[in-house]
């Protein structure tokens, strides 16, 4: 099988930040560390057979979800794929309830009935966790329409991979969102592989963002290794959508450091390629930026210790929580 190397773009320089931006980056650094440590612990538990089913890790892509979600306020909506742990954590969903959901426990965020791919938190307008590639792009358009119909001051962000850009619902969703000027920001997290298929074997035009042109929609394409940069870029499109000036399609280049799911040995890419992308780890970059802007060593140790406690507590909560009883089987099947 032909294997071509997929490279990241040129790294942006480490720069001097305002104190507001330093504080924001520190907040996002903490969230990215939470996502990383939560998933490392989840992966360990999965490997030990403590829970089963599908489990897709977000490790490597943290700056995209964290940056984008920090461009939102609490009234805004988020839709995610089966790679939803990072988005849910960045949105502020309770790590204990998320870990319990992985374990299929009654205290899980959807009472143990959804698992890894189907996190959902109505209180935070976190509208899932969706397993059907691209299907939720049409749902995002529906949410955008509901926002407009009800005259809510909200926007909707829809995350998906480059594989979803080849699905029919993607095109239907973008067309209607543009036609009706709906407040939706479509974010393609291009990690360059759809399961084992590299983008150069699946996309006739490798640039996903250019598909926006077909729908008369604004577009942007940039690297996703700098959470602050992502936050600022996405904010521009969020504010535009909030003003009623319609949707955008953003393609953000990123990389998953692990396999597609826990059962993927990732033989379709080279170790050298993975190493190149790991040098561009968004968490390391955020740390370098913060150090350059005067954040002291002990602050990173404090964050690391705080996150360790949160993740350890979430694991304990998940392990000690009860299984859903059989009598729950038919509950919550239909919404009323
Ligand atoms: C409609 C549909 N077809 C196939 C699958 C099986 N499948 C699950 S994930 C995946 C790859 C999707 O890749 P991409 O959209 O790039 O997202 P990534 O996993 O890279 O985040 C496929 C083909 C599915 N879940 N839904």
TrEMBL record:
<keyword id="KW-0670">Pyruvate</keyword>
<dbReference type="InterPro" id="IPR029061">
    <property type="entry name" value="THDP-binding"/>
</dbReference>
<dbReference type="GO" id="GO:0004739">
    <property type="term" value="F:pyruvate dehydrogenase (acetyl-transferring) activity"/>
</dbReference>
<dbReference type="InterPro" id="IPR017597">
    <property type="entry name" value="Pyrv_DH_E1_asu_subgrp-y"/>
</dbReference>
<dbReference type="GO" id="GO:0006086">
    <property type="term" value="P:pyruvate decarboxylation to acetyl-CoA"/>
</dbReference>
<dbReference type="InterPro" id="IPR050642">
    <property type="entry name" value="PDH_E1_Alpha_Subunit"/>
</dbReference>
<protein>
    <recommendedName>
        <fullName>Pyruvate dehydrogenase E1 component subunit alpha</fullName>
        <ecNumber>1.2.4.1</ecNumber>
    </recommendedName>
</protein>
<comment type="subunit">
    <text>Heterodimer of an alpha and a beta chain.</text>
</comment>
<comment type="function">
    <text>The pyruvate dehydrogenase complex catalyzes the overall conversion of pyruvate to acetyl-CoA and CO(2).</text>
</comment>
<dbReference type="Pfam" id="PF00676">
    <property type="entry name" value="E1_dh"/>
</dbReference>
<keyword id="KW-0560">Oxidoreductase</keyword>
<dbReference type="InterPro" id="IPR001017">
    <property type="entry name" value="DH_E1"/>
</dbReference>
<keyword id="KW-0786">Thiamine pyrophosphate</keyword>
<feature type="domain" description="Dehydrogenase E1 component">
    <location>
        <begin position="31"/>
        <end position="326"/>
    </location>
</feature>
């Amino acid at each position: 099988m032909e294997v071509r190397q997929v490279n990241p773009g040129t790294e942006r320089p480490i720069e001097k930040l305002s104190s507001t931006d330093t504080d924001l980056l520190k907040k996002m650094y903490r969230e990215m560390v939470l996502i990383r440590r939560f998933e490392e612990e989840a992966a360990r538990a999965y490997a030990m057979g403590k829970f089963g089913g599908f489990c897709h890790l977000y490790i490597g892509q943290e700056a995209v979800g964290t940056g984008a979600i920090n461009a939102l306020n609490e009234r805004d909506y988020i839709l995610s794929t089966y790679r939803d742990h990072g988005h849910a954590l960045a949105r502020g969903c309770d790590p204990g309830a998320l870990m319990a959901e992985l374990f299929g426990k009654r205290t899980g965020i959807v009472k143990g009935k959804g698992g890894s791919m189907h996190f959902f938190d109505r209180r935070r307008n976190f509208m899932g966790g969706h397993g059907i590639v691209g299907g939720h792009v049409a749902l995002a358009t529906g949410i955008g329409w509901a926002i407009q119909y009800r005259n809510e001051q909200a926007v909707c962000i829809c995350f998906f991979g480059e594989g979803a850009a080849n699905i029919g619902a993607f095109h239907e969703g973008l067309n209607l969102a543009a036609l009706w000027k709906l407040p939706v920001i479509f974010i393609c997290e291009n990690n360059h592989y759809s399961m084992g298929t590299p983008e150069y074997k699946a996309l006739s035009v490798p640039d996903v963002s250019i598909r926006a042109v077909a729908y008369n929609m604004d577009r942007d394409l940039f690297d996703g290794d700098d959470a602050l940069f992502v936050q600022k870029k996405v904010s521009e499109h969020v504010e535009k959508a909030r003003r009623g000036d319609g949707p955008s399609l953003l393609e953000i280049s990123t990389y998953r450091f692990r396999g597609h799911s826990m059962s993927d040995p990732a033989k379709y890419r080279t170790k050298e390629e993975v190493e190149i992308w790991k040098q561009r780890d968004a968490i390391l970059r955020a740390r370098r930026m913060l150090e350059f802007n005067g954040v002291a060593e002990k602050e990173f140790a404090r964050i690391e210790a705080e996150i360790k406690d949160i993740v350890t507590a979430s694991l304990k909560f998940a392990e000690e929580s009860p299984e859903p009883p059989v009598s729950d089987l038919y509950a919550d099947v239909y919404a009323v």
